[in-house]
Amino acid sequence: MLKQFKSIIIIAMIALVTLCGATSCNSSKKMSKKEYKALVAQATKDLNAILNDETEWTLEEQMDRINELKKVDFSKNPEIVEMLERAELKVTNAIAERDRIAEEKRLEEEQRLRELEEQAKPKTAISDYFNMIANARDVTSANNYIKEALKLFESPDAVVLIRLNNYGDYDRPTTAVNYLNYLKDQKKVTVNVDNIKYNENNKITELELIKK
Question: Sign of the C-alpha dihedral, residues 72, 75, 81, 85?
């Protein structure tokens, strides 16, 4: 009985070695001419589809197919080699352009959201800045308020008119920066905002004040 069992084990081992040898032989078997011809035909079809934008594959799928074909030895078929090079360059450039456009759109969307956030912030009116500057606790604070207020103007030299009464009498014209500094020195506000002119960017081009 023991001898029979040993014989079975030996036969099984021989069969296993024979099977492994056969499998190895089949895996290393070279591609037949028929298989190679079919592969060339399919490669030509796929590469033409990629080059002529006639495929529904994504760019990543196209690149996967190109990389798959690059593993095959097409050295005896220079036409396929040349098509592979052109297809790889085309898809690489397409991916780069797609990513560039996506990045531009992302940055534009970020800018749009920043602008919406900025617009949603409560705005400080120029009249509020007058009071903040005049009542600032120190010169540094007043100067900071002046810098903020000037952002409302087209330029620091935007015209400021001061109407003395309702009869059309005006004080000498001044500029935004000069009037804001005047408020800093006077430490009081003696005018009301009567009229404001804006440019297309919603910046003050002319400010008309009237004495209280």
Answer: positive
